[in-house]
Amino acid sequence: MRNVNLSLYLVLDPDMCGGAQGMIDTARAAAQNGATLVQLRAPHWKKRALVECGRALKAALAPLGVPLIINDHADVCLACDADGLHVGQEDLPAPDARRIIGEHRILGLSVSNARQLAEVDPALVDHLGIGPIFSTATKTDAAAELGIEGFAALAAHKPCPVVAIGSVKARLAQPLIAAGADGLAVVSAICGRPDPGAAARELAEAIEAARRGL
Amino acid sequence: MRNVNLSLYLVLDPDMCGGAQGMIDTARAAAQNGATLVQLRAPHWKKRALVECGRALKAALAPLGVPLIINDHADVCLACDADGLHVGQEDLPAPDARRIIGEHRILGLSVSNARQLAEVDPALVDHLGIGPIFSTATKTDAAAELGIEGFAALAAHKPCPVVAIGSVKARLAQPLIAAGADGLAVVSAICGRPDPGAAARELAEAIEAARRGL
Question: Which among A73, A26, A84 has a CA at the least distance from the CA of A50?
């Protein structure tokens, strides 16, 4: 389970999706159209709401074979028996996160610079989200944007698989895959789109085309 | 461990105490002067800061025999090996919280009305915080104030030990203990006081006097 398909990683946004049911509908449509991993991220939500939404997402995604990752909260991950956890640099330290979620769950970590990358222990962490590629309205506390070249410079030293995140769009699939991305993580490229399934399909096809072109 | 002395339960506030070191100093002074239980509550903090502060609090309190409770975050409770967890009605459901923290840690639950009280499972929950007794600036999302009579009406049906919380002061010890409180939980009566140790001592003595008077 810890080696997952990172090709198209959907990070849900409750505001863009219109609440819990919107996130569930968006996740299902995306998973039916090429999304390979889904993250529940709702930093302003209380945990009871997160657990309920996480359980509904797991029920929607498990039959499609798409793992569910919980952002930040290892306890919510355990409560809804999610497939994994994603932590940032100010969240639980990786050793604590790994100890709490156990050996079989997926652990992802956000990295924004070379120092953070050098500190990654691939025995604890399964994959990295490297970003932001470009600045974004979704995450107001994000670090300075890397651009494609900054991403490539970090990805060249990756100790484990990496996804690129931060204003990632279908037209960036080719340069990001060429720069070493094992997948793309997206928020606004799917959440809140008139047809999230079609948006996911377009992204999945762009990633596939980028891989064929390598 | 799950049956603890609830007499004087200090709930730390990072703003009133002036940050992490202020909370640690306040907790130590209070524990040396009659506080019997300390809770780390910093709802706006990221988890790395919570874990670091929790570990420092545990190191300060364990030699004094005063248990440390973590508010809301079962994962932080595990990460810093705290003695217990406190959850509210919108936090992790008690069955999930108990499963995550294990059988030997303390689990407290906030209750504000008769419906919530009737739902408490004393096999899962070790004690309750009943409040707010009076409205408070500390907790902006709190329910309507109960007053002493409202507290007494709930405490009469308590399925486990209870502490009274919400603008609780030393002069309220007598009526609250008489109304069925097993202890008082305080924030601003200790945090941010010129001499937190003296404030704790005054509260502890008022609680002791109230018990002698029963």
Answer: A73
Print the SS3 string covering A126-165. CEEEECCCCCCCCCCCCCCCCHHHHHHHHHCCCCCCEEEE
ipTM: 0.94
Name the residues of B annotated as catalytic: 41, 110, 139
Closest-CA residue of A relative to B47 is A91
Instruction: List the catalytic residue out of A139, A158, A193, A201.
Output: A139
**Predicted local confidence at residue B61, as pLDDT:** 98
Within 8 A of A124 by CB-CB distance, chain B residues are none
Token pair of A52, please? 């309920």
Q: Which CATH superfamily is domain A8-212 in?
A: Aldolase class I (3.20.20.70)
| Residue-by-residue DSSP string for B161-185 | -EEEESS--GGGHHHHHHTT-SEEE
Quick one: pLDDT band at residue A1, thresholds 50, 70, 90?
low
For residue A136, pLDDT over 80 is answered with no
CB contact under 8 A, B93 and A48: yes
Phi, psi for residue A201 in degrees, rounded to 5: -60, -45
Helix axes A47-61, A19-31, angle to 10 degrees: 30
- A137 or A4, higher pLDDT: A4
Give pTM, 2 decimals. 0.96
B67-89 per-position pLDDT tens digit: 999 999 999 999 999 999 999 99
Position A3: which residue type?
N
pLDDT of residue B73: 98
**Ramachandran bin of A155, using left for φ above 0, alpha for ψ from -120 to 50, beta for the remaining angles:** alpha
What percent helix, strand, coil does chain A show, rounded to 5?
Answer: 40, 15, 40
3-state helix vs strand vs coil in chain B, percent to 5: 40, 15, 40
CA distance B90 to B109: 11
